[in-house]
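INTERNAL AUDIT FORM
Audit reference: QA-55
Scope: verify that the stored structure record matches its stored sequence.
Auditor: D.O.
Record contents follow.
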Amino acid sequence: MAGDGVVGAALAELTERARAERRREHQRECLVERDSLGGSTDWWSEVELGGRCGVVARNGIVGVTGSAKEGTTEMSSVDVRHPRSAAALRGVQLLVGGYLAVSVLTLIAIVALRNDSAAVNDAVWTRGTIVVASAVLTFLFARRAAQGSRKGFLRLRIVSAVMLVAIVVIIALPGTFPLWMKAEQAVCGLLLLGVALIVNGKHLRSVFTG
């Protein structure tokens, strides 16, 4: 389908950003583990050995403390009970819930209009199914983020951005999708735009990456 290259490039870029954020998170976990061992900035630094945190002294590697995930699981979640954080995440869940509802209703409409070739073609079937699947995932990620999950928040940022790019491409494509489907996608796009603005805002990013 036309536009797949644009969506693929956007997905690749967002995936690389996600990996970079994960590397930074791993470094923070190593720092916490190092500090728990009484390390100092003069004598200790963290290294990655197959995904593990190592401790290094001036005379070389003196030990491997273990996986940063072991004993520091609290680093995978954050406290989101602050009123501002809680309100922002509630707003995200409402927007994502609306996105899911619109997507499910659209799929129901597609099934009901399946015999109308002018209203429902193969592209509409494919897109309708993909949107429902993505909406379910987005909803799950939003719930995880509302519980303080760093991974859930990161995945929410990625999927909302990718779907926004895909929606822009679909609306711009001439002739592939009927007008009613483009209008539905525009509604989904507005809901996801609200999600993207909130989750990429300074406050939530500082809460989950700080």
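Auditor finding: record pair retrieved intact. The radius of gyration is 22 Å.
Action required: none
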